[in-house]
Amino acid sequence: MKISKTVSSLMFLPFLLFFILFWMVPFLYGLYVSFHSWTVSGGNNGFVGLDNYIRILSPGNMYHDSFMNALGNTLYFVVISLVPLVVFALLLALLIENIPGKLKVFFRTVFFISYAVSVTAVSAIFKWLFTGNGGYINNVLEGFGLDSIGWLNNQPYAWIAVLAATVWWTIGYNMILFVNALDEVDASLYEAASLDGANAWERFWNVTFPSIKGVFVFVTIITVIASFNLYGQTLLITEGGPARSTMSLTMIIQNTIFSQNNLGMGSAMAILMGIIMVFITLVQFLIGFRKDDNA
Amino acid sequence: MKKLLMGTLLSSAVLLAACGNGDTGTTTDSEEIPEEAADATVIRFLNGFTGGDGAFMKEIVDNFNDSQDEYFVNESQEPEHYTQFRTGDYELVVMHGVNLETYSADGLIQPVDGILEDVGMSINDFHPAAEDLVGLEDGNYGIPLDIHPLTTFYNKNLTEEAPETYEDLVTLSAELQAENENMYAMGIPDSGLIEFYTLTLAAQNNVDLLSEDGRYLDFAQEDLADALWILHDMIYEDNISPAGLGIDGEFHAFMQDTEGDSGGNQTAVALTGPWYYQAVSDAYGDDLGIGSIPQLGDQVAVYGNSHVISLAASVEDEAMLEGISAFMEFMYQPENLSNWAASGQAPLHTETMNYIEENADEYPLPYQNQQMFDDYVAAPAVYQFGEQIRYMNETVIGRIVREENLTREELMEELENATGVAQEIADTAPNQ
Amino acid sequence: MKQTKTQKVILVIIASIISLIFIFPLFWMFFTSFKGMAESISSARLLPRNWTTGNFVELFTVDAASAPIIRWLFNTAFISIGGTLLVIVTNTLAAYSIARLNLPAKRLFMFIIVASMTVPGIVIVFPRYFNFRDMGLLDTFAPLILPYAASTLGVFLIYSFLRNFPRDLEEAAYIDGANQLQILRHVVFPSIKPVIATLSVITFILIYNDFLWPLLVTNSAEMRTVTVGIANLVQGANFVNPGKMMASTLIATVPALLIFIFANRYFVKGVNSTGLK
Predict the structure, then answer these.
(1) The domain that contains A231 carries what CATH number?
(2) Domain count along chain C
(3) What pLDDT shows up at residue A68?
(4) What is the span of the domain harbouring residue A200?
(5) Domain B38-147+304-373 shares a fold with domain B151-301+383-427
(6) Which pLDDT band, with edges at 50, 70 and 90, does C169 fall under?
(7) Is the CB of A41 less than 8 angstroms away from the CB of B86?
(8) Residue C251 Cα, gap to closest chain A Cα (Å)
(9) DSSP conformation letters of A220-242
(10) A222 near C199, Cβ under 8 Å?
(11) CB C257 within 8 A of CB C208
């Protein structure tokens, strides 16, 4: 097909326009701000070059301490959330794919429904479930004769509570993407595999997984990004505690900008966060699409 | 397929058309200003009263707007109202007392002495505690509205009166424990409201947190470590509080379901924020008692935060200033300000306090809390108070409350860390 | 893939157990909304001891003046639908252009699109707020709808879908003399419907539940979205009433749930059912 560049560009143009106006311009503005001493209320107090970045990266000051602490916490959450959010989501999708007819639609709805709840409500619900003194889960534990646990103010329990809330809230999102992908897998491939006497695992590994690999990598990438942006759950369930151990990067940046009135420093932190994220994504991308780029 | 596509396109066209209408329709009526007030000077009044308090402030504002047509107060209640104030345009804003130093240093608010003068008031029309709250070097930066101190609620089913001393708490807890090991005198949270505890304990032990140069909070004091250690003793020595309470633990333990379907710990007393009044009175009704803060240190003293009404630095216009004066004159009438007391907040305005005294039955909580004003100790006025004390709230107190084996040396080390952060925050103040 | 009856039954039982876990928190939300204030704070029971509709009554009477929930629902529905349509149209065009057409520098665009997805939203929010403020557009529908169209997730999603999708039909249509827009409308769009349905729901809920952005750009009660409005109502400083919070959240969530259940049927129709293969 020979298609004129003009037609192609025209179709791309509406998106490009929105992207430039509402993403590129603010982004460049944010980048610009990060090289300045800039307060939310007072505005620009002059160019400082890389000073903001240097302070964040050199030890011995509070910006460094809080950024590094939050970076560690956030990466920890990314790691612990990856398997539940990606692998469990895939298992749910496979389960749904193998359930007949109308029940399939029913279960798919049930597993996705929690995604429609706002983070405020999700947090309120899980805070109640995991409350240490007389909370629901502790009561259940006590019913089984077990000791109650101070979920929200002790580690690793606080992370477990945050993780449970996150998985409940967002796993349906990943699951739907997987369900979509599984729907596209060519049924004739399965039939061929069945004839060869393949068992369920072999069928999955040799037929299903290769067909959905692109989506799998994509889901992994967006899950890492979403976990990296952890905010509402830790803000509302643990308030960053105990002892700042669930303080996430977004919380620190929000605090630097809004509470400390330091837009320049906060922007620099955000840009650094972005750079780290781009790097991580790039690595995932290269690993994930290494072989099948000519597909 | 074609049908479906056309349908989609058609419905989106209809929607977009509706979009146009909706857009113009709403921008005009989003202004909330009634027609008869079209010529009025509009005063934009911002506050953070989005919870239960909001309705009471709105009542005052509505009554003012109805009482005259020269000025119109356009009130916004915003959960993130400090952010809104820093970025938006407003004339009047309700601030917390501890934030005045920050916002005056940032050049966002100006002294209100001119307004007070216009209205025929002075700082002497308020309880003496007000002076410390709003008075900065070059004037008063806010008209005092209320103080919300650490408040003592008690459950009359479990104790006949509020404990007044540490010994009272020890005795009460022992009695309750003898009856049921899940019962305690009171609860110590590990975060949240803990800032009120820290400053109350500092005040009761006569510890001055202000550094010598007056710029930052100096936590690295042996006296403060002594004062705070009592929290550790209350949990691990004297069994006054259960261990392991989290955020809002003091309140939740007090509210524990008494009918036995929860295995949690219950307390007879809560030292908590007055804003929980509605909840605790809903739970206990006539069995709820309100007391004074017990003396846990060398002297009686209490800390709490406060609301004040501040004037944006940008306001210069004479008509606007007159309007603001008119609004303040209206608000600071006992019959109007008592609306605010009806929310449970304790006003500092002397005439209104007298009015509350006469009608104590109607205003039980403000009445009780204004008794404590004489012992009220304000927070030191430092730049970014909340950020300077943040490390204390988030890390230090939590360790005292959670870690049974914490040593004094470790505590002093953490207090030094907290001071270090406070100093760094103080260094970010403009015009050093 | 044929399963025996027993296998099917086992799978359904497993799915049912997981469903219970998924639904339990929603049950809690539902039942708590019928609890009084004190009970909703202290009780560890799922079911209310004393059922009350007080929370709902309060929301529609006492709070009605400062909290026009119906108006908020309308605003939210309006911006969510408007924003979603905008995203679908712009993103489909863009993804098609990258995946199939002769767009100059498409590799560069693709890189920027992927890279932009990784930049934390917090970098963008503040400068964008100032842009809208300077244009005098705060407290209108413009900032509540337009910025979502800059989202790149959809472009990437549709692009990935198209990349693995055979071109035969499109080329046949092209040979028959159809132009690009016609091919997109009549050939491509029908076959990418599942991904469009998914993207629609994701975008819809994203806009529906967005919090910080609508909070910043609205300041009158009439312009609030339901998420922000309810947060204002029940989450303010020193507010404690889980019962009322859950009642208002329930009101806010039900429309989103209905929309989702309605959209659900479009998810299933994959390529196989369109007869393309």
Answers:
(1) 1.10.3720.10
(2) 2
(3) 97
(4) 60-294
(5) yes
(6) confident
(7) yes
(8) 11
(9) HHHHHHHHHT--HHIIIIITT-S
(10) no
(11) no
Q: Please state, as a whole number, how many other Cβ atoms lie within 10 Å of the Cβ of residue B335.
A: 9
- Interface contact flag, C264 A203, Cβ < 8 Å: no
Same domain, C120 and C245: yes
DSSP state of B238: S
Q: At C134, list the tokens.
A: 């300077």
With a CB cutoff of 8 Å and minimum separation 6, the contacts of B350 are: B125, B126, B127
Beta bridge partners of C263: none
Kindly determine whether residue B244 and residue A132, on different chains, have CB atoms separated by under 8 Å.
Answer: yes
Nearest of A221, A200, A168 to residue A97 by alpha carbon: A200
Q: What is the ipTM of this complex?
A: 0.85
Of A109, A139, A180, nearest to C44 by CB-CB distance is A139
Choosing among C40, C42, C71, C200, which should be mutated to test the B contact, i.e. which has the most B CBs within 10 A?
C42
pLDDT more than 90, % of chain B: 70
Cis peptide before A156 (omega within 30 of 0): yes
**For B344-354, what is the mean pLDDT?**
94
Rounded Cα–Cα distance for residues B246 and C235 (Å): 19
Query: Which residue range is the domain that position C41 belongs to?
Result: 5-60
Shortest CA distance to A238 belongs to which of A134, A165, A139? A165
A81 located within any domain:
yes
Number of domains observed in the structure of chain A: 1
Give the separation between CA A18 and CA C124, rounded to whole angstroms: 14
% residues pLDDT > 90 (chain A): 42
Cα C196–chain centre separation: 13
**Torsions phi, psi of A10, nearest 5?**
-60, -40
Residues C200-227: pLDDT tens digits? Answer: 888 888 888 888 788 888 877 788 888 8
> Is the bond into B149 cis (omega within 30 degrees of 0)?
no
Contacts of C237 in chain B (CB under 8 A): 48-51, 79, 275
Interacting residues of A97 by C-beta distance below 8 A, sequence separation 6+: A104, A179, A182, A183
CB contact under 8 A, C237 and B78: no
The residues with which B46 forms a beta bridge, in sequence order, are B76, B93
Q: How far apart are CA B210 and CA B223, in angstroms?
A: 13
**For residues A49 and C231, what is the distance between their CA atoms, to the nearest angstrom?**
39
Percent of chain C scoring above 70 in pLDDT:
92
Cα–Cα distance, B291 to B269 (Å, whole number): 10
**Distance of alpha carbon A228 from alpha carbon A248, whole angstroms:** 8
Q: What angle do CA C266, C269, C270 make, to 5 degrees?
A: 130
Q: For chain C, list the contacting chains (3+ Cβ pairs, <8 Å).
A: A, B
Buried-state track B83-113, b at ≥16 Cβ within 10 A, e below 16: bbbbbbebbbbbbbbbbbbbbbbbebbbbbe
**Phi/psi of residue C216, each to 5°?**
-70, -40
Q: Are B150 and B279 in contact (CB under 8 A)?
A: no
Q: How far apart are CA B430 and CA B51, in angstroms?
A: 33
Token readout for B365 is 């909580």
* CATH class of the region B38-147+304-373: alpha beta
Nearest to B58 by CA among B344, B324, B343: B343
Tally C-beta pairs within 8 A across A and C: 274
DSSP-assigned letter for residue C149:
G
Residues with Cβ within 8 Å of residue A37, at least 6 apart in sequence: A44, A45, A46, A48, A51, A52, A264
Looking at the structure, tell me whether residues C196 and C93 fall in a common domain.
yes
CA–CA distance, C171 with C179 (Å, rounded to integer): 11
Q: Which two tokens stand for residue B303?
A: 């800390």
Topology of domain B151-301+383-427 in CATH is D-Maltodextrin-Binding Protein; domain 2 (3.40.190)
Alpha helix ranges (H) inside B143-217: 166-179, 194-204
Nearest-5° Cα angle at C74, C73 to C79: 100
User: Which helix (H) or strand (E) segment is B154 a member of?
Assistant: strand B151-155
- Is there a single domain that holds both residue C270 and residue C245? yes
How far is B137 from B134, CA to CA, in rounded Å?
Answer: 10
